[in-house]
Design goal:
- The complex is a heterodimer of chains A (311) and B (265).
- Chain A is an alpha/beta fold and 311 residues long.
- Chain A has two domains: 154 residues, 3-Layer(aba) Sandwich (Rossmann fold), CATH 3.40.50; 139 residues, Rossmann fold.
- Chain A is 39% helix and 19% strand.
- In chain A, strands 2-1-3-4-6-5-10 form a seven-stranded mixed sheet, with helices on both faces. A five-stranded mixed sheet of chain A has the order 7-9-8-11-12, with helices on both faces.
- In chain A, helix 3 runs parallel beside helix 5 and helix 8 crosses helix 12.
- The longest helix of chain A has 16 residues.
- Chain B is globular, with a radius of gyration of 17 Å.
- The mean pLDDT of chain B is 97.
- The chains are: A alpha/beta (311), B alpha/beta (265).
- At the A-B interface, helix 3 and helix 5 of A face helix 6 and helix 7 of B.
Chain lengths: 311, 265
């Protein structure tokens, strides 16, 4: 997913002379082909995220479309005020590509996890937040970023993620994709949690329970219409995110439902990371398991919720 | 102090007398710097504020915006009467300048340490687009406590941005007290030099010296420039000069306003 995303920056830059790439201190050889082909539009600015955001704002004010890449926690937390003031207050077309959204950097500990990024960026006006589920979706998404008039945070997963997206379902920023039709229950997911929800849905089907999967790749602006349309049709809703339960996708869904369809709020349950710093290393998968974000727990949460709602 | 400097200060007093609050001392230390920039250095068109070839000026010390508003009004970006809406609910003129609202304001500032990174981006853009305009960033002295300023300084030097100049309004005071007491900046010139800037120092109220220095920009080819402007906080008002309580003042009294105008006679 990351390679696809960065390669797309290069491809898009070939077509649009205003597109530039800015890295902080990325791995050696990152986008070497772009650096060689268009060195004047390739920047590696060092470990200076606050400056990089401001610099990109200055470039965007002059007509450029900067794509910035760094590790997600540092591209969100370290330069939060710069993102808020320089990018979002000025409402500039800068794209923030965050490596390792969620628990990708599990072995590196809590300083390197990005599990509050959605919450803090969701609170900023003009910000757009997108978490594609696989590389093929990334390919469909990236061309849409060129003309999007607002800042975008692109939350990258680990990479090598199972391809579950379908080209015939298309991709529009701000428009959720219904990957599977709901009947009894509905999973609402973002990023690579969509894969887990699809798998849980398959297992539930074997039990005779039909659950839909709404892939909310864009968390902001949230697709309120799809929620308003689908949630009243099902008996239970489970949101799943690789993010704190505070402030992320689940919170956004609850807020939307509270505003638009309040009598359906109680049928929603959230799966996410508990309100505590990670005290484990291991791998992304072992951390997710520790937090109870597994196909099995997703399936069981839906079963329990359906049982509760139908009693 | 000549009549023009007094007139610009009078505009600031006109504005501050409405809401009875503002960064009075911070505005008064930068009047001559702004006057020289807008009178004899910067290229701009007040009737076409987004003219592509204009020089870009960023007031990074956004709290000093009263003096920027005064010079922009003087240059016809808006009227004196419009400015007198300062801080009213629908006014474009707030306690910090807003790019989207005030003609002639290049960046919304107020949070400190943002102007120089943005200026680096603008200067890079000018070079990439082969444009000859210059970028000037005016910072406060307390402002450059911020690490982002020094991140940007490293970058400006790396990119050899000779089209970028940072000016420091070195009035020696920040909110709590003197810059020496709060977080000493010295040796300030050496710091900028070591970050790769060509550095000059000047009396920030000396018009001729400021004109002479700015006429020589850039000081060295392939280097960004820094001008350390030694100024006096609250310049022109003996009750406020170098007085920390006038960094930001609220509940300004009728007597204070009267005294301000009296000093400008």
């Amino acid at each position: 997913m990351r390679n696809t995303c960065l390669n797309e920056v290069h491809q898009l830059a070939r077509k649009n002379k205003n597109i530039i790439f800015i890295g902080s201190d990325l791995g050696a050889g990152t986008l070497a082909s772009m650096k060689e082909e268009m060195p004047d539009r390739f920047f590696m600015e060092g470990i200076s995220e606050q400056h990089i955001i401001g610099m990109s704002a200055g470039l965007a004010m002059e007509g450029f479309i900067p794509y910035i890449n760094s590790i997600a926690p540092f591209l969100t937390r370290r330069c939060y005020e710069q993102v808020l003031v320089d990018l979002c207050l000025h409402d500039l077309p800068v794209r923030l590509i965050g490596n390792g959204g969620g628990a990708v950097y599990a072995p590196l500990g809590p300083t390197h996890l990005a599990v509050e990024d959605i919450a803090i960026f969701r609170a900023i006006p003009n910000m757009t937040i997108v978490a594609p589920c696989d590389a093929q979706e990334m390919l469909r998404f990236m061309p849409k970023t060129v003309d999007w008039p607002h800042p975008i945070y692109i939350r990258l997963a680990k990479g090598g993620d199972k391809v579950v997206s379908k080209s015939d379902l298309g991709f529009e920023i701000g428009k959720a994709i219904l990957m599977r039709q709901p009947k009894d229950g509905l999973f609402i997911t973002t990023g690579v949690m969509t894969q887990k929800a699809l798998e849980a849905s398959e297992q539930l089907l074997e039990l005779g329970i039909e659950c839909g999967v709404l892939h909310m790749h864009t968390i902001k602006p949230l697709d309120h219409a799809s929620l308003e349309n689908l949630i009243p049709k099902v008996n239970a809703v489970v949101t799943i995110e690789e993010h704190f339960r505070i402030g992320g996708l689940g919170s956004a869904v609850l807020e939307s439902c509270s505003d638009l369809i309040p009598k359906h709020v109680s049928k929603i349950t959230r799966i996410g990371i508990p309100d505590q710093f990670s005290d484990k290393y291991g791998s992304q998968e072992s951390l997710l398991e520790y937090w109870g974000i597994t196909v099995e727990s997703i399936k069981n949460t839906m079963l329990q919720k359906l049982k509760n709602e139908l009693n | 102090m000549d009549e023009r400097s007094k007139n610009l200060r009078r505009t600031v007093v006109d504005v501050i007398s409405i809401d009875r609050r503002g960064h009075f001392g911070s505005a008064m230390s930068s009047i001559e710097i702004l006057r020289v920039l807008f009178d004899s250095f910067l290229s701009f068109r007040s009737n076409q504020p987004d003219w592509e070839n204009r020089d870009r000026f960023i007031l990074s010390k956004g709290h000093g915006c009263l003096s920027l508003y005064a010079i922009l009004a003087d240059k016809g970006f808006f009227t004196h009467e419009e400015l007198l809406t300062f801080c009213s609910p629908d006014s474009p003129f707030g306690g910090h300048p807003d790019r989207g609202k005030v003609s002639g304001v290049e960046a919304s500032t107020g949070a400190l340490g943002h102007g120089l990174p943005i200026g680096v981006g603008m200067a890079l853009a000018a070079r990439m687009k082969q444009q000859s305009h210059r970028v000037i960033v005016l910072t406060g002295d307390g402002e450059i406590n911020e690490g982002s300023v020094w991140e940007a300084a490293l970058s400006a030097s790396k990119h050899r941005l000779s089209n970028l100049t940072v000016m420091i309004d070195y009035n020696k005071f920040q909110s709590y007290g003197s810059t020496t007491e709060v977080l000493d900046l010295e040796p300030l010139a050496d710091k900028w030099k070591s970050f790769g800037f060509a550095v000059e120092e000047v009396d920030g109220h000396n018009l001729e010296a400021l004109e002479e220095l700015t006429s020589r920009l850039p000081f060295e080819p392939n280097k960004p420039s820094a001008i350390i402007c030694h100024t006096i906080k609250g310049k022109g008002f003996d009750f406020a000069e170098a007085k920390i309580e006038w960094h930001h003042k609220s509940k300004i009294s009728d007597e204070d306003i009267k005294a301000m105008y009296h000093h400008l006679i």
